[in-house]
Amino acid sequence: MEPPSQGLYHSFEHIVQAHENNTALIYLGEEFTYAGLRRYVLSLAAALHDMGVKPGDSVILYLYNLPQTIIAWLALQRLEAMVVPVAPVYSAYDLKYLALDCGAETIFCMDSNFNYVDEIIPHTPLKRIIYTNMLDMVPWWKRAIARGLERVPVGRSPQGDQVHSFNEVLKQGNPDHLPSLGPANPENTALILYTGGTTGFPKGVPLSSGLFLNNVREWRRASLAVVPHGQAISALCAPFYHVIGQMDATAPLLVGGESLIVLPRVILDGLLHEIQRHRATNMFAVPALYRMILEHDRLDQYDLSSLRYCGVGGDALPIEVGRRWLERFGVPLYQGYGATEFCGAITLSYAEFGTPPEGSIGRITTGSKVKLVDPDTLLPVAQGQPGELLGLMPWGVKGYRNKPEETESAFLEIDGEIWYRTNDIVREDPSGWLYFEDRSADMIKHKGYRVAAAEVERVLQEHHAVVAACVVGIPDEKVGERIKAFVIPKQDVRGLSSFELINWCRERLAPYKVPHYIEFRDILPRSKVGKMLRREMRAEEQRKRSA
Hints:
The protein has 547 residues and is of the alpha/beta class.
């Protein structure tokens, strides 16, 4: 495949020149044109440049879905820095690890999570903290009403020589100070997304400019047959720190010159109101959100007839949810399959092929390659038989940041090409549609998030009263899987409770990683080499459910 002639920021500039008066962002009733968005982006880029942010620097975005988040993302692409999106609900424990791992000296945060940033500053390379809140980019009267009605979180007013207000930084930037933008290099790392680690620590996935641009173009192409160029209005339903959120937020801005509806948090009535008000045509969400919409007791109050392409990913779509959605709205749910290591989807359900076959996860994206192999021998399986999916994409990921052992186990060199090993079992039918069969027992899917069992086990085992822990996913039709931990306490400990261990996890893990159930055991199954046998615990739970 030929290298893209443009980089990520080059693509944005091209879109602005063609659509400068179009609405780029819609946020809390405010609209930002492409020309206006570009002014903010260049001002912020100039200010960051003056503050010392250089090409190749890692910069953390510890933010909710806000216009500021997108402005910062684009400004960092203009500077050829590496964006590191981080869940704004992460505790200081997680944040410290990520800041050390990526070496970031600059972080954007909320005023409501600044306390965690402040706590880790002495222990990390951080030198510059830029804080904001949900209302920084809306008129004063909306801020007054929202605060008067206590509708937004209120954080502290950060102070210190290293601390800067987003709006003040924005005012300081002079675009004339910016260096010239160099030619596009598809191999340059544009951002680092973190995903669960099988050794218990998150892994940094470096995503190249070429890979991101290739995938975001495919993301938009999937809906072209039902939403032509220039007509999409997308409702952002996934968090910006998740790869689905990255694709869905940037596709309108880098490819279509179209509008993106941004909500700081997805609350059902707020989302449905925005879809109805702005006649949204596109959305992409995890299966749990579609189920929640279908079961919402006020759904009849909203008109969602504008929706034309409803994508789904992050977890396997239950057949009954897909059927109910199609019956209710006359629009299918178009499922895709991917991973952070693929920078999103390696299969998509393209609208040009009509309603996808029931249970399908789509077709292989343009330029990508897939092998289905026997997990033990790595030999190709027969046509139509299930096998472990290996994937390769243009300018794809070749390994994790600072994780040689995990890189070696997850990436394979075959005939001079680097393939990512998913551990997921997939089959392909004669027409080229793929179907998800099973996943590795090491990964738990909760509300579309990938939770590494080893990470939760590590945190539990750091408790002074815990000898060992085994964590598995328990199937749940509403959220995919719930997290259950089996724990062996120390023999001389009395009074240890599941409540205490869950609180211990809450202080050290993102909310979606905290176990829902904890069961105490005297012994846990292990292999001959001492490896925890999670599959046995999953099988035991399945037997209980079917009894």
